[in-house]
């Protein structure tokens, strides 16, 4: 699980009621299908702390054994066979901290009587968490179950502007970014049908450490809580995705001093363009002025 602030490091879409979720495929009771798929991670995945994986298209009277690097790590008998089990139909998640940092592989075997079948194999890389950098009072950010249940192309449709023309390279870049989100238990299309989302507000960070102020903007001066994401360095081994060249042509900058944000747009220039001076200020309130 991740503490809530970590999400800001990945923001490439606006998290927007829960997107329509397809029910897991269920094979008829008493029979095993010819094959089944582990859902919840898009291989190859980069993960930290916890993963959420279940067995798709397995009948509810079976047993599923999960293996990581060839070693049995869990046996599940409750449909839909969440790795690590579930409480009140909510997956608990499987802690990756026991596996060690580095490359791993996961597969599962479903059994029914003397019959058994194997799943696909998921390749994943575990990377260090930075949760210990933050206050112990800050609550963990909860996994979005729909991140495991939705097809990535459905999520893409819910986060794309209708009629937008995307090149194949741009579309692939979007899918790569979405996979990065989904593997961390984040559904970027969450509540995509609402402009103002109470669901997202309910998921918001809680119990932040109070902001610390000083007479000058030194390293110990925090205008906002020290738990804020932009005070943290992004580990080099965390997942990332390259955007196609020229994909971003303008950017919106926002300040947060004495207001709910001052925004202005900037266009990217060519290498030979002269330097420009920009000053942001909320009307006549000089205390909000910032020079760029």
CATH topology heading of the domain at 23-126 = Immunoglobulin-like
Taking pLDDT < 50 over at least 5 consecutive residues as the criterion, the unreliable ranges are 3-20
CATH H-level homologous superfamily name of the domain at 23-126: Immunoglobulins
Helix content: 10-25%
List the total number of helices: 4
What's the Cα radius of gyration?
A: 22 Å
Supply the CATH class of the domain at 23-126.
Mainly Beta
N to C succession of SSEs? EEEEEEEEEEEEHHHHEEEE
Largest sheet: 6 strands, mixed
Indicate the mean pLDDT. Answer: 82
Distance between the termini: 37 Å
Q: State which percent range the strand residues make up.
A: 15-25%
CATH architecture of the domain at 23-126: Sandwich
DSSP, total strands: 16
- Global shape: elongated
Alpha-beta classification: alpha+beta
């Amino acid at each position: 699980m991740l503490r809530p602030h970590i999400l800001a490091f990945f923001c490439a879409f606006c998290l927007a009621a829960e997107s329509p979720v397809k029910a897991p495929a269920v094979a008829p009771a008493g029979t095993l299908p010819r094959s089944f798929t582990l859902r919840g991670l898009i291989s190859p995945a980069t993960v930290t702390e916890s993963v959420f994986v279940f067995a798709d298209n397995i009948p509810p009277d079976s047993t599923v054994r999960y293996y990581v690097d060839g070693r049995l790590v869990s046996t599940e008998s409750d449909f839909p066979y969440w790795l690590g089990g579930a409480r009140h139909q909510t997956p608990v998640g499987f802690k990756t901290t026991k596996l060690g940092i580095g490359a791993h592989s996961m597969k599962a075997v479903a059994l029914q009587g003397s019959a058994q079948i194997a799943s696909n194999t998921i390749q994943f890389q575990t990377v260090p968490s930075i949760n210990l950098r933050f206050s112990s009072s800050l609550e963990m950010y909860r996994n979005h179950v729909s991140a495991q249940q939705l097809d990535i192309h459905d999520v893409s449709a819910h986060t794309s502007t209708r009629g937008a023309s995307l090149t194949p390279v741009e579309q692939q870049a979007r899918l790569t970014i979405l996979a990065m989100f989904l593997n961390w238990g984040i559904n970027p299309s969450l509540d995509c049908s609402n402009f103002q989302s109470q669901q997202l507000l309910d998921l918001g960070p809680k119990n932040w450490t109070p902001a610390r102020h000083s007479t000058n903007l030194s390293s110990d001066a925090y205008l906002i809580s020290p738990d804020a994401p932009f005070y943290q360095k992004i580990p080099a081994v965390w997942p990332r995705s390259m955007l196609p060249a020229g994909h971003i042509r303008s950017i919106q900058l926002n300040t947060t001093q004495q207001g709910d944000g001052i925004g202005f747009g900037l266009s990217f220039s060519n290498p030979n363009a002269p330097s420009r001076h920009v000053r942001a200020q909320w009307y006549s309130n000089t205390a909000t002025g910032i020079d760029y």
